[in-house]
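During the reporting period the student researcher (J.K.) took over the structure-prediction task from the postdoctoral fellow and processed the backlog of single-chain submissions. One of the processed entries is reproduced below for the supervisory committee.
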Amino acid sequence: MVDLSVDYLGMTLRSPLMASASPMTSNVESLMRLEDAGCAAVVLPSLFEEEIEHYSREVDRILSTGADIHGEAHSYFPDVYDYDTGPDRYLRLVEAAKGALSIPVIANMNGMTTGWWTEFAVRLEDAGADAVELNEYVVAADPTINGFEVEERYLDLVREIDATISIPFAVKIGPFFSSFANMAQQLVDAGADGLVLFNRFFQPDIDLDTLSVEPHLVLSDSEELRLPLRWIALLRRNIDASLAATSGVHTPDDVLKALLAGADVTMMASALLKRGPGHIRFLEVEIVRWMEAHEYPSVRLLQGSMCADAAADASAYERANYLQTLRSYSSDSI
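J.K. obtained the following structure tokens:
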């Protein structure tokens, strides 16, 4: 029998197949279907910084409503559900998921501002989350803020979370740093137990009829795996933390390539939205078939066997044999 078990954030998972944050993980019923299909762990949808900010404003507004009205007037008091906004619903989802599932449940926090994050990180831990994924999503569009300041914002948030909770946490980030390898090391040094590579920054579009800027969501495909594949292979032997591959994980080949490069787990959202929870079962069957054919008794044995340090040509990961790639394309296309 092939051993598919892996370690991630200090937890032992039955396989490297995880569901990342998406509408697929937003309710208990679909979470149970994911577990039944063989999903090793789930990342719940994001709790956004904007939701927490809205929650704080609403609580202040509700508590100050009628502050100057006579104390015997009770009918104006707003119902508690008027300010039962995102954070409390999210905590109930964490509790319900933990009650219904036997696999690890990872909460997801999306934002970039320190302060109130610590309070909700503690509440997520108290609700039963096995780990937290800190989704640091920021587009550095202010030309007055330099790269060092941007990086410090990331690191300050990681340090703050690390000092607040006792459960493990991973940081999900984008690749847009001047020295990504150094930034990855700094995040781990600041307390991150793992890195999730990479965050997808959704790109807006312009509607030519309404002359308005429109959100534009495009699901990923396997081509997007190449960037996380490259960086996981470069980081694997130098970073003492869990590495998760996300963005572009769709097929059995995608999963195997990520593992060979050095990923501890692979996370899927678009693939599950396109094909449903049963896709996990298909992936597992095909991965086992490949491993048996290539005489790998366990996932742990193949993990990182083709990372940059182990590859015959490490430059293929660094400069990607730039000149050779161009020449081969030119000769093939003539």
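The committee noted the following: The domain at 6-333 is CATH 3.20.20.70 (TIM Barrel).
J.K. will present the remaining backlog at the next meeting.
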